[in-house]
Fold this protein.
Amino acid sequence: MTSPVQTEGAEASTVPDAKGGSKDGTQEAKTLTGLSPGQLMWRRFKRDRTGVVAAVVVIFFFVIALLAPVIKMVYGKDAYTLYGQDSLDLLDEFNMPTGTFGGVSADHWFGIEPNLGRDVFMQLIYGMRTSIYTALAATILMVVVGVLIGLVGGYYGGKVDYWLGRLTDFLLGFPSQLFFIASMPVVVAAFVRPDEETPTALRAGAIIAVLSFLGWMGLSRLIRAATLSLREREFVEAAKIAGASPWRIIRKELLPNLVTPILVQATLLLPSTILSVAFLSFVGVGFVEPTPDWGRMFATGADIYEQDPAYMVFPGVAMVIFVVAFNLLGDSVRDAFDPKSGR
């Protein structure tokens, strides 16, 4: 069987030259043959313009979210000050932004929030920061749990695989959206008395715990199926004969061969988790006032869209661009690892 490295080398040796003949691609073939799978993946990914553009967009969002405090210093405004209450010319008698397109001006680039009069630009920047990094933490936890359970069940098989499979099936039967809505107040109430205000860090931890509790099963099934195939391969049998422990085989032999599906699924899982974080805040059980959040901005916009439709434009466009870019990035990463699945 010809390996992917050898195939690329063979293709390189038959590239026609400018005179219509075929140049000797021996040197290029040797170069490709010496590359690791990661280097070959990177070569294929760089050729995918859609993937590169999507990666730039995603990195841009992460950097903007990370540098929110710096942007606040440069911009000169924050996400909490009620500018509309301090300056009477920013809101009209109905507490709607004055001026055009939601109060967009040189002082307030994306306008003013209706009723309270906070700066929309800083609300969006800090809302992105809250949603993206909360979803990132939840996604990492989902991946760790899903990979661990999938590897253990797939490698050991038997009763271990049976009971882990039944646990996965049981959790898959939960209606996730209803579970999120019902469990968030319970989780928060377990740590905070009714007369106390819930700390934002505790609320973020509860969101991460609730989302990760029902988010790992799909990845676990995928890893289990791949592990069942890999555990019968010659290199695993050789490691067993050599006396390697099960943990060493899982860590050294199986896990490195599962990097591709793990990475691809993680890139596809994160945007859906961001939408789930926004959904929880939108229905009022996620982040609440005054914490900036994408979902809370949508909830505010849903109440005043008839009076101020411009308020929904900036958070809506930002979320669509980010989610689409991340999904395109996931597709490009998958195609780079597996050229046969390319578009």
The two ends are 24 Å apart (CA to CA). Residues 102 and 310 are 5 Å apart (CA to CA).
